[in-house]
Design brief:
The chain is of the alpha/beta class. The protein has a single domain, classed as P-loop containing nucleotide triphosphate hydrolases (Rossmann fold). Helices cover 37% and strands 25% of the residues. It has eight helices and ten strands. It has a six-stranded mixed sheet with strand order 6-7-8-3-9-10, sandwiched between helices. A four-stranded antiparallel sheet has the order 2-1-4-5, with helices on one face. Strand 1 and strand 2 form a beta hairpin. Helix 3 runs parallel beside helix 5. It starts with 5 loop residues before the first strand and ends with a helix. Bound molecules: adenosine-5'-diphosphate. Adenosine-5'-diphosphate (ADP) binds next to helix 1.
Length: 240
């Protein structure tokens, strides 16, 4: 077995005031899989993502990214490790408005003082269909195009894992489908690893598996569920 992209061992996160947002969560994210995380509001999805990405430290338990225990690092070293090993895709794209597409996608490499792997970045740009727009600024692009640029940026460092937070939340239905198909293809063709938080069953249905969270725990792991199965599972939780 290869080292998992991300490993959580009995991770608990308590916020001030005693809220237990994660309750001894253990999870291995294997390489080359696309995982969706769903669950009612307040179930701990964001907290799980923040701990798994090294943005927050657990109260107890361990987090390993690419085999490195990041929960044991100080903030400076954790930030460095994250920059090299984790990519992020957000609902609002978060591109730098003053930079061209070419400069936006290579920014993480420059921040990490790493050489640009032109063959890899070129293959990504080609795959997302943005080769003709390398000189454009974000404001000249549609939302779907901006998100495709953000996906290239997230993958430019060839990270152990990409965390996507509601990546299609600001896109119309047709564009959402294209972006999700793209994420799935990048996982299937390029062996990348994606963990996506979403409340949209149609989005989660594009992943290989969906984890369902309730009250800070993973209560279900559904493999290749349909969006109908996911929707009814979530409805049953909201009623219960
Ligand atoms: P989700 O992303 O599923 O909506 P969160 O991870 O945001 O869930 O929240 C899980 C629980 O932790 C909730 O009860 C929420 O109110 C609480 N929580 C989240 N962030 C904080 C914080 N910074 N301080 C205190 N409580 C928080």
């Amino acid at each position: 077995m290869s080292v998992p992209a991300v490993l959580l061992e009995s991770v608990t996160k308590e916020y001030r005031g005693g809220v237990r947002a994660l309750d001894e969560v253990s999870l291995a994210v294997e390489r080359g899989v696309f995982i969706a995380i769903m669950g009612p509001s307040g179930s701990g999805k964001s907290t799980l993502m923040h701990c798994a990405a090294g943005l927050a430290t657990p109260t107890s338990g361990k987090v390993l990214i690419g085999g490195k225990e990041i929960s044991a690092l100080n903030e400076t070293r954790r930030t460095q490790w994250r920059r090299d090993h984790v990519g992020f895709v957000f609902q609002g794209y978060n591109l730098v408005p003053s930079l061209t597409v070419a400069d936006n996608v290579t920014l993480p490499l420059r921040l990490a003082r790493r050489a640009v792997d032109r063959a890899w970045v070129g293959a990504l740009v080609e795959r997302v269909g943005m080769r003709g727009r390398l000189g454009s600024r974000p404001s000249e692009l549609s939302g779907g195009q901006q998100q495709r640029v953000a996906i290239v940026r997230a993958l430019a460092t060839n990270p152990d894992v990409v965390f996507a937070d509601e990546p299609t939340g600001a896109l119309d239905l047709r564009t959402s489908v294209q972006v999700l198909d793209l994420l799935r293809d990048l996982v299937d063709q390029f062996g990348q690893t994606v963990v996506m938080v979403t409340h949209d069953p149609d989005a989660a249905a594009r992943a290989h598996q969906t984890l369902v969270m309730v009250d800070g725990r993973i209560v279900d792991t559904l493999r290749a569920p349909t969006s109908e199965q996911l929707a009814s599972r979530l409805t049953s939780l909201q009623k219960g």
